[in-house]
Amino acid sequence: MSARDSDWDGVRLHVITGKGGTGKTTVAASLALALASGGKKVLLVEVEGRQGIAQVFDIPPLPYEERKIAVAPGGGDVYALAVDPEDAMLEYLEMFYGIRRAGRALTKMGVVDFATTIAPGLRDVLVTGKTTEAVRRRGKNGRRVYDAVVLDAPPTGRIVRFLNVTQEVAGLARVGPIKNHADLVRGVVASPETAVHFVTLLEEMPVQETLDGVAELREAGLPAGGIFINMVRPAVLPPESLEAALAGRFDVGELALGLKAAGLADGPADASAIGEALAAEVVEHAKRAALEHREREALAEAEMPRYELPLLADGVDLAGLYELAEQITSQGAA
């Protein structure tokens, strides 16, 4: 699928958020691979200091510099950057005040940590500022350095405060470089060039947190993107069997006879015991399928594009990331 077929044609900053444990970093990494396919250049950014990108790509911890970490399907490069607030502060001081050396002295004295602690909005401005600078950056030929930037952002509960930098620094600075810097960031994250995507599981708490996050995002005037439903289990039984199990019409005796006929039980008693155990598993599977159906319907109310990514039987490794990237591309998300 070509880039023109993507649901997000024209979007250059993809912000990925989600409740902890939903696989947010895995989805961000897979999306970066998908966006870079076919010869593109994509930057994957993390801002929480967890070195999650290094872990999913099985590479050494990332420094505060952009470096190539993967080749995308069909050619194309994925670069990565782990944004460190302290280094971002030093870069900011040099950019606007020309005092990087003095900034290092302030770092040794703990002033930088003190400043970002009493004004947490400043920390967010610094790390989002580095990301949006990469979105805007052009090379000597006048072309964009990166075709897209993927930001592995904080969890859903903090995403609006993290992105709504103009409001966060309003009480900190009404004029001057900090205010101008925040306005530049807002100009990118609130524009049609940005999409904030949510990662969820088909479970009640992640889905509710996703819906709450979408509502809060829209209220703040920030651009909602798509919903990535991660770790989806394959359907192993037809709908009529699931309905029968939920309604209590599942025939354990017939199942026992089938086990015996297939040579999977030593005798009637063994077949009956195995049949009852399997029947209990079928009922639990049916309950799970019904829950997932309800959660899908709840997510549909958000009226956003939805993409389903499979649960990887062998866990998430580099091959798994490429598999998920292919799924993302095939569903039109990249």
UniProtKB/TrEMBL annotation:
Task: Tell me the InterPro entries matching this sequence.
Answer: ArsA/GET3_ATPase-like, ATPase_ArsA/GET3, P-loop_NTPase
Residue ranges occupied by any ArsA/GET3 Anion-transporting ATPase-like domain in the UniProt entry: 13-170
A Gene Ontology MF term for this entry?
ATP binding
Name the record gives this protein = Anion-transporting ArsA/GET3 family ATPase
- This chain's source organism reads Thermocatellispora tengchongensis
